[in-house]
Amino acid sequence: MSVASAGSAKPSAPVETRSFLIDEAKLAVELPPRWRLVRREVEDVSAIQYGFEREPVQGRGGHVARPYVGVIVKPLAPEERNDVIAFSTLCRARVPFEVIRVFTRRDGILGLQNAIGYRGRTQYEGNTHEIFVVHALFRDKGITIIMDTTTEVFQEVERELLQTLVSFRHVENP
Q1: In CATH, what number does 15-170 get?
Q2: By Cβ atoms counted within 10 A, which residue in 40, 62, 79, 125 is the most buried?
Q3: Burial group, residue 56, by CB count within 10 angstroms (0-12, 13-18, 19+)
Q4: How far apart are the first and last CA of the chain?
């Protein structure tokens, strides 16, 4: 699957980006210029969450959306470090969503090894949301990447989301 076929975006010129490093997972990402870090916090002592938000986008119905990319890095017990499918299943059981498509590194949309991704849909706060979710393992860490925007503005930001998704890379070997 090409980057363009992960959603409905057509191939086009790349968006200018800037690099950001999530040091706890040795994970680099390229963010489009309209995106900024809005949160970095430690949750329940050991998990670290990064949040990136895009400038607001006004949808056709007048609703203003703030597309979001979240990255959660948490330590894993030794028995949890080898099976990305088991890790993903556990994560998805806690936060269920409708799966539209499953993708891996072989599909060309993920640069991460030992990872599985989903294009999905969910509803909350009275809105339907289009999401990309990735679960990955790296050394002794479990990584969850969540990219979220309302359906109303998805087509406007899909290219940026896909380009960001493809850009995730580890800066060190596992």
Answers
A1: 3.40.1000.10
A2: 40
A3: exposed
A4: 25
